[in-house]
UniProtKB/TrEMBL annotation:
Record bears the keyword ATP-binding: no
UniProt entry keywords in alphabetical sequence: GTP-binding, Nucleotide-binding, Repeat, Ribosome biogenesis
Organism classification: Bacteria, Bacillati, Bacillota, Tissierellia, Tissierellales
Record gene name: der
Descriptive protein name: GTPase Der
Native organism: Tepidimicrobium xylanilyticum
Similarity annotation: Belongs to the TRAFAC class TrmE-Era-EngA-EngB-Septin-like GTPase superfamily. EngA (Der) GTPase family.
Length: 438
């Protein structure tokens, strides 16, 4: 997908993420008064006047900073600028020009890209005269907006789409499979994304919680189109102290909600934790395709059947997602990452798989012959017929005589019989039971 790319840059706390959220019309980037909240490049699809483009939010730029996180942020912004067709340089209209603004302006002029100077926090006519001092940055006429109030956003976007290259594709495209990379902090989710993309797309350090936002990245593997969503790691509730980190947990759950398939990354050196169970449970309950990726497998000393023992432990602790395939990988070396893509293709096919009503009822009839349905007080469960009513995940509507007679164990038996014929690897199966005539 060769869609126009618009990148938002600026120093910390000038309203970049607020503008990002306003343009994409949903709360994706974390907005908080603390500088440096947005650390990675955050991607989202956006639209204005039926023209579609990719919008990138970036961390606050401090060009001369040498601390590890600001240095990484600068590298992220440089990569975003390189890929951008239009750059929105956000400045604070209330504060006026700062030395950091001047440094960023110099950096942008050297990029040779289309740059629009956006003067934010102009929410009253009385302060609009202050924007004239920004002409000294040498980037043309400032565009006055208030991201918080939503003022001037339309005029800004009118100007943005004027600068789109003619060869770019601005039509709507929904062919991408959405993949959420989930797991607790510091298990290698961002490293996996970076290995797949072949670039430092997401900040990776040994500091837990480096990734705070859910970040979308478009990627094509062969003929398959994906959107990878890197998420902040879910911590135990008692470990969540900052308000920003609470937002990150919400963002992770939202990423799961809007994904098609979740890749649960587990640290091979630590094994399955209680937190892994909770994360997997949320994805399962929401009907998402699931793959378990055991990362850092290169750090494990191998003996005969080591991976079989590890897999047995996973199946024991995550028995409720026994349908999820397991792959042992190293995000650091790239070992078996290609196998992950093979599984993504299989799981995507399975979450969209449909069974004809005739074949489904043949399976149900055979299941009843092999194991009689349960009974209670002389009344036996009768299954009249079933039909598939949905995909993502596959959902089956079964008509019966009495709901109270459908025990969970028999529902699981029916599920196993369906899986015996169609597999459905990587996807949960959902059932809805209705009494005849209901």
């Amino acid at each position: 997908m060769d869609r126009p790319v618009v990148c938002i840059v600026g120093r910390p706390n000038v309203g970049k993420s607020t503008l990002f959220n306003k343009i994409v019309r949903k709360r994706i980037a974390i907005t908080e008064d603390n500088p440096g909240v947005t650390r990675d490049r955050i991607y989202s699809e956006a639209e204005w006047l039926n023209k579609y483009f990719t919008l990138i939010d970036t961390g606050g730029l401090e060009p001369e900073a040498e601390e590890i996180i600001p240095t990484h942020i600068r590298q992220q912004v440089e990569i975003a600028i390189e890929s951008a067709d239009v750059i929105l340089f956000i400045v604070d209209g209330m504060e006026g020009v700062t030395s950091t603004d001047r440094d960023i302006a110099n950096m942008l002029r050297k990029s040779g890209k289309e740059v629009l100077l956006v003067c934010n926090k102009i929410d009253t006519k009385g302060v609009s005269d202050q924007i004239y001092e920004f002409y000294e940055l040498g980037l043309g006429s400032p565009i006055a907006i208030s991201a918080e109030q939503g003022l001037g956003i339309g005029d800004l976007l009118d100007e943005v789409i004027k600068h789109f290259p003619e060869h770019k594709d601005i039509e709507y495209d929904d062919e991408h499979v959405k993949i959420a990379i989930i797991g607790k902090p510091n298990v290698g989710k961002s490293s996996l994304i970076n290995n797949i993309l072949g670039e430092d797309r997401v900040i990776v350090t040994d500091i837990p919680g480096t990734t705070r936002d859910a970040i979308d990245t478009y990627f094509t593997y062969g003929e398959d189109k994906y959107i990878f969503i890197d998420t902040a790691g879910l911590r135990r509730k008692r470990s969540i102290f900052e308000k920003v980190e609470r937002y990150s947990v919400i963002r992770t759950l939202t990423a799961v909600d809007r994904s098609d398939i979740c890749v649960l990354v587990i640290d091979a050196t630590e094994g399955v934790s209680e937190q892994d169970t909770k994360i997997a449970g949320y994805a399962h309950d929401n009907g998402k395709g699931l793959i378990i990726a055991v990362n850092k497998w290169d750090l494990i000393e191998k003996e005969t059947n080591t991976h079989l023992e590890f897999e047995k432990d996973i199946r024991n602790k995550l028995s409720f997602i026994s349908y999820a395939p397991i792959v042992f990988i190293s995000a650091k070396t790239g070992k078996r990452v290609d196998r992950l893509f093979q599984l993504l293709k299989v799981v995507n096919n399975n979450i969209n798989l449909r069974i004809s009503t005739g074949v489904l009822n043949d399976i149900i009839s055979e299941a009843i012959l092999l194991s009689q349905p349960p009974s209670d007080k002389g009344v036996r469960l009768k299954i009249y017929y079933g039909t598939q009513v949905g995909v993502r995940p596959p959902k089956f509507l079964i008509f019966i005589n009495k709901k109270e007679l459908m025990h969970f164990s028999y529902q699981r038996y029916l599920e196993n019989q369906i899986r015996k014929y169609f597999g459905f690897d990587g996807t949960p199966i959902q059932f809805e039971f209705k009494e005849k005539g209901e």
